[in-house]
Amino acid sequence: MDPARAQGLLAALELARADAERGAALDFDLLGGWQVCFFHPFDDGNARSAFLALVFVLAREGVALDGVGPIRRITCRADDPQDAVSLARSIGFHTEDTRRTAASRAS
Description:
Layout: H1 3-21, H2 28-35, H3 45-60, H4 69-72, H5 81-106
Helix pairs in contact: 1-2, 1-3, 2-3
């Protein structure tokens, strides 16, 4: 990923987390607002939108992962139930890993 795209993604992540913190409702307008952080057209808009929506939902539940790179690299098909299971397992793994790291830092 080039530096400009990386900065755009970081800005979108900050917006998504801030919107989650303020209790915003997730809708297409909100999601579209996060996308203006990128140059158009882009070839991974669906994947990026899904990823930003995931970050928003996690943040709304008070979950902030140490790193999102591994999850962002997962490719899922909407019509494949096994892909959804794999994604959920990965999110669970990374959530627990983040919590273990936070607990070890606190002790």
